[in-house]
Every structure is written in C-alpha cells, then in structure tokens.
C-alpha cells in the first residue's frame, strides 16, 4: 500500500509568515491548504507559489464558525487526510491606542480572529488530526511575553494562544500534539501580497540589535514548524518556542 502524501492546513497563509510556511512545505512535497480572508492575497499567493497539484486555496474568515466548518470539509475532501494545522491567521497591527480610547469592537475583533479563530480551527480539525496522529502549531508572538504601549488587545490574544496551546496538548495527547511559536521581528515585506520588487534593505542597526546578528525571516519560523510537525518532535508538546534572535533575553535600557 502506498503512503499518502501528508497534508498541512495553514490559516492566514496567503502572505507574510503563513506564505513562507506554505512555500516551505510545498518544497517538502506536502499538500498544502491555505485559508485566508483576503481574496486579493489568495490570488497573488496562487500565482507566486504556483503549484496547482499540491496547493489549494480557500477564502475563509476563521472567526466565523460556519466558514470554518465549510473550509475544513473542503480541505479534507481535497487532501483526503489532514496531518497538521497551523493557526497563523491574525490581525497583525498591535497598536490600538490608549486603553481608555480602545473600543470594545476593536478589542473583540482581535480576540475573535487571533484567538477564537484558533479555537474554531482546532475544534473542527481535531477529528481528522486524531486519525493521522497529527499536530497543531499556534502562531503566538513575543508580545505575549513582553509589551509595548497600547497593545492590550493584541497581547491578550497572543497570550491566550499560548494558554490554549498547553490546554490542547493536555486534552488531546497522545493522539494530537500542540505547540506554539512566538516570533519576534520577522521581515515579511517580500512575502506580502503587494511586495515591492526590491524592498529597501534594513539598516545595520536593525540587524545588530539582535543577539543573533540579524532580523528574522519567514524561513526561520517555517523551519520550526517543519520540526514541530515532524516525527522528530514526537516527544514535544505543550511548549512555546520563541524565535526572536534573542531579543527577549536582552536587557535594554535608555542611555
């Protein structure tokens, strides 16, 4: 009996880090399902990644359960299985202004997309992941561990993702493993839907402030995802992995 090609589902996968993860797994000959609510980004992603046999794109708002149910059914029908879920969808801008001016709708939208979307995706993919003894990777942020001013909604949603991760790991193990990744500064400009053909180089000081000596790339995050969903990580679950070039370990004071 021939072994089926593994299938990964990536939310928010049409641009940025998610697109980098999709490209990584296409290179590994996985079948890749990308969910994204941005129709224009989906179109560009399909053109850029250009692998119609192994790439399936679905327009989906992960904060809406009816759309999640439909998308998961379509993904499983296309792939005939599901081996990994990457909850990457999220509203990226952390700055919502002073908390006394933060409207409930702004707060709720970030919670709905960044956190509730991951819950809904897990809820409806777990039956399939159990069958494959698969894996979930939630994309959190270093802002779950440290903050800048006026980022309460974003920080809360990402902190919730880390807690959701270890709860899922305990509830779903040993059949399904769950881990999270907290990226720091990842330069995604070349992976956006309307990326400049030649992005302006980052400054030397941008790179040098990182103990690793450089700003991160989507490939850095994709490499960790590839490890976490592989058999090599079979003993790894419920963990949060910080990929930030060492910045959360660096003490920074004003001169």
Automatic annotation (TrEMBL):
Pfam families assigned to the protein according to its UniProt record, in alphabetical order: adh_short_C2
GO terms for MF: oxidoreductase activity
Keywords attached to this entry: Oxidoreductase
PROSITE patterns to which the protein is assigned, alphabetical: ADH_SHORT (PS00061)
UniProt entry tagged with the keyword Oxidoreductase: yes
Superkingdom in the source lineage: Bacteria
Record flagged with keyword Oxidoreductase: yes
Chain positions covered by the region annotation Disordered: 196-217
Similarity-based family: Belongs to the short-chain dehydrogenases/reductases (SDR) family.
Protein name: SDR family oxidoreductase
Source organism: Marinobacter orientalis
């Amino acid at each position: 009996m021939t072994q089926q090609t593994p299938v990964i589902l990536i939310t928010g996968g049409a641009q940025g880090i998610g697109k980098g993860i999709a490209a990584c797994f296409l290179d590994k000959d996985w079948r890749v399902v990308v969910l994204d609510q941005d129709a224009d980004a989906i179109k560009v992603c399909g053109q850029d990644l250009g692998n119609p046999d192994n790439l399936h794109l679905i327009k989906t708002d992960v904060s809406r359960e009816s759309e999640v149910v439909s998308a998961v059914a379509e993904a499983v029908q296309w792939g005939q299985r599901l081996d990994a879920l990457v909850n990457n969808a999220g509203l990226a801008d952390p700055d919502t202004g002073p908390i006394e001016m933060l409207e409930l709708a702004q707060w709720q939208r970030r919670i709905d997309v960044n956190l509730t979307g991951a819950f809904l995706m897990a809820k409806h993919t777990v039956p399939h992941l159990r069958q494959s003894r698969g894996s979930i990777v939630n994309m959190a942020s270093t802002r779950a561990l440290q903050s800048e001013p006026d980022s309460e909604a974003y920080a809360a949603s990402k902190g919730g993702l880390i807690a959701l991760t270890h709860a899922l790991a305990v509830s779903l193990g040993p059949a399904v493993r769950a881990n999270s990744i907290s990226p720091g500064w990842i330069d995604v400009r070349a992976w956006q839907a309307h990326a400049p053909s030649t992005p302006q180089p980052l400054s030397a000081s941008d790179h040098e402030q990182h103990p690793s000596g450089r700003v991160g790339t989507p490939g850095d995050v994709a490499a960790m995802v590839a490890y976490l969903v592989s058999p090599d990580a079979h003993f790894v679950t419920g963990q949060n992995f910080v990929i930030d070039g060492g910045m959360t370990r660096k003490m920074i004071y004003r001169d």
